[in-house]
Amino acid sequence: LIIAAGTGEFEAGISKDGQTREHALLAYTLGVRQLIVSINKMDTCNWSETRFAEIIKETSNFIKKVGFNPKSVPFVPISGFNGDNMIDPSTNCPWYKGWNKETKAGSSTGKTLLQAIDAIEPPSRPVDKPLRLPLQDVYKIGGIGTVPVGRIETGTLKPGMVVTFAPVNLTTEVKSVEMHHEQLTEGLPGDNVGFNVKNVSVKDIRRGNVAGDSKNDPPSGVESFVAQ
């Protein structure tokens, strides 16, 4: 979450209709649980320690209301324009002792934005759940055929698998799976893959359809669902 330290800029961002508030709320609503707050344009307030402390205090209060735990959030003072504290520690803020965060996995410390990004804990990939692959697009590729493309959300996708597309209820075999023009023996959650399917026309399936394993709880219609 980027916050501008400039006089009036920070205040506008966290006001009732401000973008900073909106972005934090959107991130939390979309399921993002790890946050880094970088306070940018510190050069415009002469690297003021009091301004930095004021912004941390105000921001901690409002991200707590959104649902984040401020103790698990690194606060990093930076100047994107000059590159301070982005990759290398800056000499412009001798008062800055570094950021620290405490999570269930333990505590970590650092000085730069890059270190804060490196300290993000990778999410567990839900490989044990049934396959769910929402289609982002469907291509017709000469000499290959119909190639649906999308990101695997849960489960795995392998060549030879028989998949069912919902809600059109169409079942077919996967001939091959590839990512970045390389053949895969298995696609995992988080992978953006293209896969070639047998005897299916581009007109049969479309963006928004969901592919699942026909033998393991394929996606089906429901009467109701619980929204987050």
Key features of this structure:
Rossmann fold; 18% helix; GTPase activity; alpha+beta; three-stranded parallel β-sheet; 2 domains; cytoplasm; six-stranded antiparallel β-barrel; Elongation Factor Tu (Ef-tu), domain 3; 228 residues; translation elongation factor activity
3D structure, described in words:
This protein has 228 residues and is an alpha+beta fold. It has two domains: 2-119, Rossmann fold (3-Layer(aba) Sandwich), CATH 3.40.50.300; 132-213, Translation factors (Elongation Factor Tu (Ef-tu), domain 3, Beta Barrel), CATH 2.40.30.10. Helix content is 18%, strand content 28%. The protein has helices at 9-14, 19-29, 49-66, 113-118; strands at 2-4, 37-40, 75-77, 99-103, 106-110, 133-141, 145-151, 162-166, 170-179, 182-184, 192-197, 210-213. The strands form three sheets. The protein has a six-stranded antiparallel barrel with strand order 6-7-11-9-8-12. Strands 1-2-3 form a three-stranded parallel β-sheet. The protein has a two-stranded antiparallel ribbon with strand order 4-5. A hairpin with a 3-residue loop joins strand 6 (133-141) and strand 7. The chain is elongated. Residues 208-228 are annotated as: Disordered. This is Translation elongation factor 1 alpha. Residues 1-127 form the Tr-type G domain. GO terms for molecular function: GTP binding; GTPase activity; translation elongation factor activity.
